[in-house]
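Dear Dr. V.,

Thank you for agreeing to look over these. As mentioned in my earlier message, I'm a first-year student in the group and I'm still getting used to reading structure tokens, so any feedback on how I've presented them would be very welcome. I ran two proteins. I've put each sequence directly above its structure. The first is here:
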Amino acid sequence: MNYNREFLVPYLESICALHLATEKLSKMNNEHHNRINAMKRGYNTTPPKPPVYETFSVFNHPVALILGSISLVFCVLCIISYIVDPFLGGFQVFASLFYGGITFGFFRYIHLSKEVTEIENKEKKESYEKALATVKMNAVENEKLTAMVPQLEAQRKICVGDLEKARDLLREFYNVNIIPSQYRNLYAAVYLYDYFKTSQSTDLERALTLYVLEEIKSRLDTIIQQQSQAILNQQIMIANQRKTHQLQQAHAKSMRAKLDNIIASNEERNTYLEMIEANTKATAYFAAANYLK
């Protein structure tokens, strides 16, 4: 089937733009949804468990017990040696020195162990107080986030409204029934728009045959990435030029006048009229869809 390019290209451009709009609005809607859920969950406000402080005790340190025991043994030996023979000089000197060294090591170890325990308890306290402060700060932030949720939900509602309108319009465009159902997707829309925009062809059936034959998905991904915003901007610019209802109807009237100058059967004429009506609705949609802008 051959179609007049003056009607076909704008029709395909609108379909392409509506597909891109639904993609963009769906992504924005999901982002809003995830952000709202995250804000409702908020930050963690579970109070931390109070720390368990260590109490220093010699009995909790085996090294201290060993040193103390050795010190006590040599103390007893020194006493016994003086009682038995006050003149056991060599042994008494050795025992006294050993006793003094062990005793010094014992008290030094106790002192250092107490310091370590105090430092650990201090670190536990600081960590606990920091966690408490974070929980309090999180509670304040959660109140702010909760206050912001209604505004974001209102924005999401607008986004969803525009998304549903775009989907409804797409159904109306496809209901003109010039594009078969298996080609009613974003890739086919971009392909057909690019094909007819960059060629002089008017044969839709041939274009669809080439679409089936070609391995074009990767190329279309590139086109979608590079041209999606340009296509949307083009539609928005056209919509701004025909922002009022009167201008939109005036353009539709001029297109119907062009149709009167084309030799077409009644079936073809009705198809073109449906395309004109669909394009008029698309223009009105993009003129009102402030969320896309």
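The second protein is here, in the same arrangement:
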Amino acid sequence: MQDKSKKVCLSAAEIEKLSSHYLNDGRKQESWKIEQVEISGDLLNATLSMSSTYVSDTDEHGFHLTIFSTLEFLSQLMIIYGHNWAGLDEKTREGWMVESHTKTVRAIRNPNAIYVEMKVQKMRKRGENLYCSADFRVTDEQGGLFEVKLKGFLS
């Protein structure tokens, strides 16, 4: 254990040895695809798959969905919902995430079948901006579960 009262200065080489390969390089290898979206009122359901994955050498179970990719595709789904809600058939607004809360309940391990349920809590227009608050459940067929709350707007 480190003496917490001692000041430590790490060199670039030491930082490299302690850093996550995934965060430095592996994350750039990940890509996802939205396969299907269904919208009914304040509910959106989507099916996604990973087009490209990264598997960490330190994870003995193989692939696991990361919160980083998850936030990307949830943001995309929120943008899609907001444009659809406003009656727009193509992206004309910039999306801005204002607040997020994530909870990883169980790891999502299936890269080929990721399911999203988005429940819109609030959607409104103020001037030219569209504001949305939504709760998400991200699951797979193996019992994986992420619970996410996002607030954002389109301007």
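From my reading of the second output: The radius of gyration is 19 Å. The helical segments are 12-18, 21-24, 67-85. Does that match how you would interpret it?

Kind regards,
E.
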